[in-house]
Amino acid sequence: MPISMLAAKKAGSGKANLIEVALPEVPSGHVLVHVRACAICASDLPEWNAQVAGPGKRGEWDADNPGMTGHEIAGDIVQVGDAVDAGRVGESVWIDAIVGCGRCEACRDGRQTLCEQVSIVSQGFAEYVVAPARQCRPIPPDFDYPIASLIFDMVGTPMSAAKLAGIKAGESVAVWGLGPVGLGLVQGSIIAGASPVIGLDPVASRRSRAEARGAIALDPMHPASLGRLRHLTQGKGPHVVLSSVANQNASRQAFDSLRLEGRLVTVAGFPPAGGEVRKWVSGSWGCYERDWPEILEQVTSHRFVLDDYVTHLFPLREIEQAFDIRGRDLEGSFKVVVTNDQT
Ligand SMILES: [Zn+2]
Ligand SMILES: [Zn+2]
Known about the structure:
Blueprint: E1 4-10, E2 16-22, E3 30-39, H1 45-49, E4 72-80, E5 92-95, E6 98-99, H2 105-108, E7 119-120, E8 128-132, E9 136-138, H3 145-148, H4 151-164, E10 173-176, H5 180-191, E11 197-200, H6 204-212, E12 216-218, H7 225-231, E13 240-243, H8 248-257, E14 263-266, E15 280-283, H9 292-300, E16 310-315, H10 319-328, E17 335-339
Parallel strand pairs: 10-11, 10-13, 11-12, 13-14, 14-15, 16-17
Antiparallel strand pairs: 1-2, 3-4, 3-8, 3-17, 4-5, 5-9, 6-7
Helix pairs in contact: 4-5, 4-9
The protein binds zinc ion (ZN) (2 copies).
One zinc ion binds at residues 41, 43, 71-72, 153.
């Protein structure tokens, strides 16, 4: 094993340096993962663009944090701590990055995202990362590392939100925002039997992706789009709105578009209060552990299709270009993944 590794460290707005740091210690119950792919999440971008890093709300955004925010990670287990089966060395894994304490009521019920001591495995823009052994799950046989790095947040997060919405077959669903999470919300809705599924996004290439998955896609900037959404939903609005838009105006429009007694689940932005209006609103973050078995069934069988998400691969030394493309080119980029393939 090497004793040091390269890791990206934030150096001002839109900049990172690769620095050499000691290989992290591997505590009991943990493993050391050689990172083979770490995807850029939309949630990484505000931090990347800020002049000074963190500290973030859960400790993962820290100015002194080599490896930065990266939390969509796949790689190989190269070392195990005490109390971990040594046979796991060599295993190829993706990391379920939301870690609960394992002891509280929520954790024991498989709802670890609600744990009061929740933490996130991050610092993935580096050659190695430490993670609790139980969060490292085997990569399905026909998945490469970049695609496997998307399972945690690009499958778990939207599928869990769609499940929370309790979509019934034949209900109409509108998905606001068709980025990588939004496309997952479209797929989750279709898998749940929703019809029609209507996606809204101003970016043409994102609408095309949603159409290819079976959605009707609308441009919310077009003046007729809200009327068309109403028309497609019996003049009442959709039964369910799933929203991945951070923009407050769009969040408000998404809420307003919902029919009375309809349900809104949002994975980004703010659920706007409805006053006297009878609509159900919930936030959703990440994926309950207890939901993974049925969600993994959808992705390993390729009913949830991830194959075409990765548009760009960059080696770690080109991390600035990776973030630049992801932040600037919404038409041309979808998932941008940083790799360590030179080693
Ligand atoms: Zn993410
Ligand atoms: Zn807990």
